[in-house]
Design brief:
There is one protein chain. The protein is α+β, with helices and mostly antiparallel strands. It has 2 domains: about 160 residues, no CATH class; about 250 residues, no CATH class. Helix content is about 40%, strand content about 15%. It is built from 16 helices and 12 strands. Strands 2, 6, 7, 8, 9 and 10 form a 6-stranded antiparallel beta sheet that branches. The chain binds adenosine monophosphate and magnesium ion.
Length: about 475
Amino acid sequence: MSLTIPFDNTYARLPEGFYSKLAATPVAAPSLLAFNRPLAEELGIGGAIAPEEVAEIFSGNAALPGADPLAQLYAGHQFGTFNPQLGDGRALLLGEVVDREGKRRDIQLKGSGRTPYSRMGDGRAWLGPVLREYVVSEAMHALGVPTTRALAAVRTGEEIYRETALPGAILTRVAESHIRVGTFQVFAARRDGAALEALYRYTLARHYPGAADPHEFLDRVIARQSALIAQWMSFGFIHGVMNTDNCTLSGETIDYGPCAFMDAYHPDRVYSSIDRMGRYAYSNQADIIVWNMAQLATALVPLCPDQEAAVTRFTEQVHAMPERIRADWLARFGAKVGLDAPTPEDGVLIGELLSLMQAEGADFTNTFRGLLDGSARDQFTDRAAFDAWAAKWRERIADQPRAEALMAGANPAFIPRNHRIEEMIQAAVAGDDAPFHRLNAVLSQPFTDQPEAADLARTPLPEEVVPATFCGT
Ligand code: AMP
Ligand code: MG
């Protein structure tokens, strides 16, 4: 093997109860669909990289020197119900590397076969969700949103069975770590104080060095999650499965299952076919993240010497979170309308625009982008109402020299629209990978006008709308 990955593994040295070590289950005929070279370089992955070799490695068929593959244990609240034992049922952490900037990153295969945590699952993934995660996670990165990354996508040459036979695939995912709220929950639920302490120390060293105690730790996690959710909302992103096992301690977006970017704006928008109650609807995300942080706080209580005092303090910390989210939201949406120091009154002005958008089902992305060139008006049939709002808004930004620059950097022209993702998946299933590569290329510069890609910026026609998305399983 000439491709080298400079592994430097630490999670594999945590106590045995944290994971199960095992190798990937080989696949029949791996072939490379995508390899993210800039990311590989960032990670210090070197050597000659022939596609066949890359496919062998990122399908798990070839053992890699220095890798120490393991499936991680975790638990989690799924749609509000605690599941005491989850874990990587179809993923394997190959190991970690220290990237060019000195940051430790996980390299993980997703779809690599059964593990002790697979329960009823087959441990595999099909091509659709693999390409969806590849495109959406890379698009999120280009938008500036903290996220796991996609390093490679490989076809396995095997069929897997969902409702029908589908082509199998494996995604290689890169993350600052895969530690989840659910990782803390599993040891708290088991009352394994030693493991909980070891996980806490490890997470502190890796993500929050210098945090003095579990309270400071929680505050810093809350700060990252608050900023993250405000960013999601500012791009019309709906995660779809904000279970506590899909909520990272690093503050990165993880697990792109039934996620979607909204086209027509509505605060209650849900895409996930399994989210029947709208628990993870667009605007509910701000409440759910607080709930998730409350679950993390609960798991941290055993780490505190005076547990009664700790509960009081954790409760205050969690109760303070909505205010922080409102501030982060206001900063993000302020930038979208050209304001770098928005006031609460500006929040009212932004709310008025959102109400107009909701009433008419205006396209979220194109309305905000259209504030730059005046085309936002075209999103509305009630022009008078929009014009009245726009007059107030223009007056407000008249003395803001940075308005245009702020808006250009906060309002993308391109997001991975649902119907384009579906189209891309259909093409890839039929053997045509060109739409996948084109989407990636265009979405790598979301804030740049690309006239030749106007079709990817367009709102879906009624017959193109994809109303529901499905889990990655
Ligand atoms: P997710 O909804 O993708 O976050 O997954 C929830 C849990 O189900 C995790 O523990 C996954 O590892 C597990 N899981 C999902 N799909 C599969 C599969 N095809 N085989 C085994 N486990 C799976
Ligand atoms: Mg998950």
